[in-house]
Amino acid sequence: MSRRGLLRAAGAGAVVVGGGGLLQACSSGIKGANSGGTKGITIGWIHPLTGALAGFGAPDNWVISKIKQTTPYKNGFKIGSKTYPVTIKSYDTQSSPTRAGDLAKTAILNDGVDLLLASSTPETVNAVASQAESLHTPLICSNIPWEAWYVNLGGNPQKPTVKPKYVVMYFLGAEHLVKAFIPMWDRIHSQLHTDKVVAAAFPNDSDGNAFRAVFPPIAKAAGYTFDMSSPYPDGTTNYSSMISQFKSAKADFFTNVPLPPDFATMWKQAVQQGFKPKLATVAKVLLFPPDAYALGHLVDNVATDAWWAPSLPWVSSFTGETCQQMASEFEASHGQWNSNISNYSLFEAAHAAFTSVTDPHDKTEVADAIHKVNIHALAGPLNFASGGPAPGVAITPPVGVQWQKGTKYPLEMQVVDNTLQPQAKITADLKPTNQ
């Protein structure tokens, strides 16, 4: 489509150039929105749409299209006696942490955003959060373990006294992942009578450092012994020594938190070298269909986590649509459901904050407002005022899921454990990975 055609389709002023590339955007286009000189609200969303983390951003453009159809974003936010048109600007990080930080500065300093959204892994979110906090711009984050997010902002997860002024987040923590994995380990142990040895491959990055600190003590209390590899750099291509270590330890289980391309390399080498754990429970990878299909049958019965699933009872605060309705609509046009459909709730939280202030362009007032948001949303209950495990954190607990041979699709993500999220429906029995 030509630039003129794109502008005509999306609305005048809806495509913005900046931050080293074309930035997608959408405007509310409400009638009479600018009458009386009302300045519209601008929301910027920084997220990975291309590159190694693109699986995390796969549903994001669809989410924007759904949000544009809701009454508040279509007709504008009513605040006091005024109605403010809303523009959403979408910035693709290309999966680069450096670019994520640069885009945050562009959005704040050049594009005049009133509020930022950021999603999908520390590699994206932390760089944006640092800029938002230092440049005094409110930011709502999702899809990052809270410990990695909190440490980046100067907090200590063991003594969470630091309160970020401009930043809040919803998601889970490293402790929720190990607590989701342990019930699955227990069930395989009861079936196969293992030695309860867990091989752990944690990289030398924000997620890896958080998991290295959090996982072992919780697993030890549950009766499991961790055999951890040395911290390895992201982008490692040869995992032979690590695999030999795990084989020597006769590890029954395997867990990790790598970048998706690194896991593909690691897992292929593990299979080639005969490392066959009775259950693999991985984090940060195999969360989305494209990543699973890239490895084919090698991911059969590999387990992971899901922070959102179609069988959860949550609904959109805008439309009342259920998780299942959202998943079904997504599948009708985009293929299998993706847990990051829950990024929809970034916009629910933004709306709740803006409609509670007197001046949506007062960043300090909006920052205070996001810390007071307490809503029931598509991602579940979001209460940033509760104190959570740390100030500004709302937890959305995960379910245990497993990639199994499917009926509708060759591979399907089945909910096999709901210990932390009993509202989710179990859809299949847990199977050993090496079965």
Notes on the protein architecture:
It contains 15 helices and 19 strands. Strand 7, helix 6 (122-134) and strand 8 form a beta-alpha-beta unit. It is of the alpha/beta class. 36% of the residues lie in helices and 21% in strands. The protein folds into 2 domains: 3-172 and 310-395, Rossmann fold, CATH 3.40.50; 175-306 and 400-417, Response regulator (Rossmann fold, 3-Layer(aba) Sandwich), CATH 3.40.50. Helix 5 packs parallel to helix 6 (122-134), helix 8 (174-192) packs across helix 9 and helix 14 packs across helix 15.
CATH fold category name of the largest domain: Rossmann fold
CATH class of the largest domain: Alpha Beta
Low-confidence stretches: 1-36
Give a quick account of the main beta sheet: strands, pairing sense, barrel closure.
8 strands, mixed
Mean pLDDT: 91
Instruction: Give the CATH architecture of the largest domain.
Output: 3-Layer(aba) Sandwich
Proportion in helices: 25-40%
Beta-strand portion reads: 15-25%
Q: What structural category do the secondary elements indicate?
A: alpha/beta
CATH homology-level superfamily of the largest domain: Response regulator
Strand order of the largest sheet: 1-2-6-3-7-8-9-17
DSSP helix count?
15
